[in-house]
């Protein structure tokens, strides 16, 4: 009996009016390098990232060095009147938290309100953050809490998506299990086309930009 | 989902008299058309990208077998499983088998048109599972027990008041009336479902052969919670969604959101590559992809191959005056508007959907906004031709056309007939210059008057003028 796989591939080939491609033809396809037009961009990438990200209700605060991360989170917490409980990505394990804070490195639970994570890269083109899942970057931190704070170094910002893919390809682990491109807080316009933030994912995404 | 495209005419009449629907459609149309135009204008390369996207999709279709095999190998290498389904029944069986193996009780779903095409929800529910749509719009119409039909904004036809009533009836909480309160209530109700789910099902906007990744775009993040929190993630996608590389996907992503909702990008674009890996502390334990053919491999061989370029952005329906007047439900199946009027007859049969290709006014706006330049009016005309050849059109129409053809191929006879008809019509409308009622054309004259001709045919007038010179 022909398997569904063989039947479908056979039908595809029949419709294309040919048999399976030979090795030389396959090698040629594999060697194809896409050369699509990349939209022109002449703005400073850091400025563009900030402008685009803020245009979709994300917020950005710029600091000089990593020493100021915890104080910046504390200021954000106070401004939004949040509890001192935070899910922190393993990559930021070494941060020292003041007394009264409860931090953990586990996946975000159903009541998680605040998370602090690193990101893999950011793209100036659309003002988007790129996250690569892994032991130190649980994916739930990006989607479950109401408030997601992201540490981003200015040098991590690339011009276009193709530049971010080049970085992903260079990773030892290759393509991450989950690659999340996040362009601001979760939103919906499903009720009468009215934009409402915080549909299912974070209501606020706040970037701490270093450098 | 059950096909009800035969009821198009009847449903259209109801739709046109539904005041809520009409106000919702007006609002939606104005929004989508304006924002798409604005985003396209901001990107000087937009037209160039459309041309390249068309070329890319044509390249993929020409080598579809290769890219599918390559994609499958990459998914397997990442620890995922690829299943192939020839038709809807086979696809349902595969998904059901995975769900049963995991003793699934709750299944969460991100919006996926292919899962509607294969009738997945009904099959899972019939097997005792609770199926929860997690896109807010889909959730609303699931509560309303309506089939989905809008692709981009599934609840576009629901007013806030109707949503208030639906939530009050299903959530057992005091009724909310503001948009933020309604969205928050849905957020709270669905949060528990995400965490309780055994299986999460999403679609795939693209499948990337280079990396074995499935891609979904959402604004809400519901698709991500769906695939992250369940133990098993199942992707249902049709075979033409494969693209060679990440860079190729980027070209299409640059067009997708701009064409769909008039955004520069959707809030979330997620590439999923296999199941949870060693050391990961979250993410699904199993990752499955069900590749659905359901007629597409055949479509590849005929004159409708171009339809397989479609990336499901919905721009064609957002710009269609017919869709804008009757809404998605009138079309009676999963895919509405111009793209649906081509796809539905091809997937479900010409005789099941006679009215759809004929409802088109051939104004061409759909083709002018399609990001991958599908010649939708040409394909619709082709379907009409096929319907005529297979004698699916009404006998009176076929006889009238045969008579017209007989005359049209005999110019003298045609002009003779035309002269008589023009004079007769001029006589009929001589008092007011318009005709109130006309035999055989009641469909037109019931709702408006027919302007009466002056009594001379165009050719007579042309000849007369030329003679004067």
From TrEMBL, chain A:
The record ties this protein, via Gene3D superfamilies, to: NagB/RpiA/CoA transferase-like
What sequence ranges are listed for the domain LUD?
A: 115-210
Q: Write down the SUPFAM superfamilies for this protein, in alphabetical order.
A: NagB/RpiA/CoA transferase-like (SSF100950)
According to the record, the segments passing through the membrane are none
Which PANTHER family does the UniProt record give? Answer: LACTATE UTILIZATION PROTEIN C
Provide the protein name.
Lactate utilization protein C
The scientific name of the source species is Pseudazoarcus pumilus
Lineage, broadest ranks: Bacteria, Pseudomonadati, Pseudomonadota, Betaproteobacteria, Rhodocyclales
Automatic annotation (TrEMBL), chain B:
Residues spanning the signal sequence: none
- Any GO MF annotation of the entry: metal ion binding
> Per the UniProt entry, what is one GO biological process?
lactate metabolic process
Q: Which residues form the 4Fe-4S ferredoxin-type domain?
A: 301-331
Q: Which InterPro entries match?
A: 4Fe4S_Fe-S-bd, 4Fe4S_Fe_S_CS, FTHF_cligase-like_sf, Helical_ferredxn, LUD_dom, LutB/LldF, LutB_C, NagB/RpiA_transferase-like
Q: What is the top-level taxon of the source organism?
A: Bacteria
* Pfam families associated with the record: Fer4_8, LUD_dom, LutB_C
UniProt keywords (A-Z) are: 4Fe-4S, Electron transport, Iron, Iron-sulfur, Metal-binding, Repeat, Transport
Q: What is this protein called?
A: Iron-sulfur cluster-binding protein
């Amino acid at each position: 009996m022909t398997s569904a796989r063989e039947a479908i591939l056979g039908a595809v080939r029949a419709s294309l009016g040919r048999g399976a491609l030979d090795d030389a033809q396959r090698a040629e396809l594999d060697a194809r390098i896409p050369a699509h037009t990349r939209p022109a961009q002449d703005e400073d990438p850091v400025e563009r990232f900030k402008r685009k990200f803020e245009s979709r209700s994300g917020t950005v605060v710029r600091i000089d060095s990593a020493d100021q991360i915890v104080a910046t989170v504390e200021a954000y917490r106070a401004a939004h009147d949040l509890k001192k409980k935070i899910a922190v990505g393993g990559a930021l394990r070494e941060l020292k938290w003041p007394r009264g804070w409860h931090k953990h490195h586990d996946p975000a639970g159903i009541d998680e309100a605040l998370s602090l994570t690193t990101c893999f890269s950011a793209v100036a083109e659309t003002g988007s953050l790129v996250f690569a899942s892994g032991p130190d970057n649980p994916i739930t931190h990006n989607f479950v809490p109401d408030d997601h704070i992201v540490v981003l170094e200015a040098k991590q910002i690339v011009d276009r998506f193709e530049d971010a893919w080049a970085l992903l390809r260079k990773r030892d682990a290759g393509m991450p299990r989950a690659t999340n491109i996040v362009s601001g807080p979760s939103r919906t316009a499903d009720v009468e086309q009215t934009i409402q933030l915080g549909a299912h994912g974070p209501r606020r995404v706040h970037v701490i930009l270093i450098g | 989902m059950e096909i009800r495209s035969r009821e198009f005419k009847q449903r259209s009449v109801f739709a046109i008299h539904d005041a809520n629907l009409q106000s919702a459609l007006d609002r939606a149309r104005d929004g989508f058309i304006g924002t798409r135009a604005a985003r396209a204008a901001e990107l000087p390369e937009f037209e160039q990208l459309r041309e390249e996207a068309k070329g890319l999709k044509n390249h993929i279709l020409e080598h579809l077998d290769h890219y599918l095999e390559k994609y499958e190998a990459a998914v397997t290498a990442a620890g995922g499983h690829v299943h192939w389904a020839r038709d809807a029944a086979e696809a349902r069986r595969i998904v059901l088998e995975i769900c049963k193996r995991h003793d699934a009780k709750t299944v969460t779903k991100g919006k996926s048109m292919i899962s509607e095409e294969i009738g997945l929800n009904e099959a899972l529910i019939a097997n005792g599972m609770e199926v929860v749509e997690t896109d807010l719009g889909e959730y609303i119409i699931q509560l309303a027990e309506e089939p989905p039909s809008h692709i981009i904004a599934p609840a576009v036809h629901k007013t806030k008041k109707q949503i208030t009533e639906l939530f009050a009836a299903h959530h057992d909480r005091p009724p909310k009336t503001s948009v933020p309160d309604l969205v928050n209530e849905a957020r709270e109700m669905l949060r528990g479902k995400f965490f309780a789910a055994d299986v999460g099902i999403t679609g795939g906007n693209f499948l990337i052969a280079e990396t074995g990744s499935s891609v979904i775009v959402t604004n809400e993040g519901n698709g991500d919670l769906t695939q992250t929190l369940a133990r098993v993630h199942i992707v249902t996608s049709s075979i033409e969604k494969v693209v060679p590389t990440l860079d190729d996907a980027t070209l299409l992503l640059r067009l997708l959101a701009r064409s769909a909702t008039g955004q520069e990008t959707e809030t979330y674009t997620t590439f999923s590559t296999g199941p949870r890996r060693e050391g990961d502390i979250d993410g699904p334990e199993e990752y499955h992809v069900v590749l659905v053919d359901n007629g597409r491999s055949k479509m590849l061989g005929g004159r409708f191959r171009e339809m397989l370029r479609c990336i499901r952005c919905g721009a064609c329906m957002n710009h269609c005056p017919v869709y804008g007047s009757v809404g998605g439900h009138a079309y009676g199946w999963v895919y509405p508007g111009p793209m649906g009027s081509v796809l539905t007859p091809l997937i479900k049969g010409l005789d099941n959907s006679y009215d759809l290709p004929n409802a088109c006014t051939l104004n061409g706006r759909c083709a002018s906004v399609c990001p991958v330049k599908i010649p939708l009016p040409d394909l619709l005309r082709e379907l009409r031709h096929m319907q005529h050849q297979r004698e699916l059109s009404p006998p009176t129409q076929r006889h009238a056309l045969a008579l017209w053809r007989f005359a049209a191929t005999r110019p003298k006879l045609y002009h003779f007939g035309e002269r008589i008809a023009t004079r007769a019509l001029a006589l009929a409308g001589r008092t007011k210059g318009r005709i109130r009622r006309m035999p055989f054309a009641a469909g037109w004259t019931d709702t408006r008057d027919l302007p009466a001709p002056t009594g001379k045919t165009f050719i007579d007038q042309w000849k007369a003028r030329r003679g004067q010179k």
